[in-house]
């Protein structure tokens, strides 16, 4: 019998929280009567977290473990967990105990009501300003670009229908854009406030550096969603105004030269006009190259390696998961392509 719920928990150096988290998850989900599994994905931890997780898997029929050889990032860890998941509903959450498992039944209610993707909103956050300020800026920019106003894109506490996950290809920092990615495909996305606890163990892995990476990946998401069939348009939106400003500056200087209003060779506006024209035309040319690439070959998926994978009874599986979507040998069941929205 297929499971109704899969909970995917990526972790990196969280040795002090794994066991407590599992206890809280079981306590929260068991009373609902919903059959479930918990999939822990070790993203190359260097502490005792993988050992504790392996012992946990050996003692619990509800848990399984995937070990990466090294740190490949949260997106890769989530991808591996999604491919291993067997539930009709998949919930993701962080392993640092800041997400409260008691919120899981509320996510299930939203999915059962017909929503495809439910994103958590840490309405009252217990994080330092170095983490909250970049997050607010990121949420504001992404919400405006995609027209999906969520308070907290960065929250790792989310729920998905399996049919929605079948259309995700995560790498880099794209896990933070999953609501926008699925919204662009027509899936219904909602948001619910969730309890957020202060971090009591370990250190946060997020900050201003992640904001910079996220903003760079924003262009990737734009290319793969709104402009996936017309990448030249995105670069043209940037390049044409800059090119136009450059030509306008050069035209103005040309008029001054023709009417004898003085030399123009030493004017800063001349250098601005030349650089603007060069940069703008390069952006347009980049868009044309992107069109050629899109038409000639599919985008290759990022690879990740799994050192070992443990089943629900704790035994080492003979064929561990090795790569993501298209080039994989795995014992995990691959989700079928949906024929339409399914009710959970």
TrEMBL record:
Region (Disordered): 308-344
Residue ranges with Polar residues bias: 315-327
One CC-aspect GO term: plasma membrane
Gene3D superfamilies given in the database record: Spore Coat Polysaccharide Biosynthesis Protein SpsA, Chain A
Protein name, per record: Glycosyltransferase family 2 protein
A GO BP annotation: lipopolysaccharide biosynthetic process
Alphabetized InterPro entries for the sequence: Glyco_trans_2-like, Glycosyltransferase_2, Nucleotide-diphossugar_trans
Molecular-function GO term, any one: undecaprenyl-phosphate 4-deoxy-4-formamido-L-arabinose transferase activity
Domain Glycosyltransferase 2-like: 6-166
Pfam annotation, one family: Glycos_transf_2
Annotated organism of origin: Pelagibius litoralis
Residues spanning the membrane: 234-258, 270-293
Keywords: Cell membrane, Glycosyltransferase, Lipopolysaccharide biosynthesis, Membrane, Transferase, Transmembrane, Transmembrane helix
Oxidoreductase as UniProt keyword: no
CDD domains xrefs: DPM1_like_bac (cd04187)
Signal peptide residue numbers: none
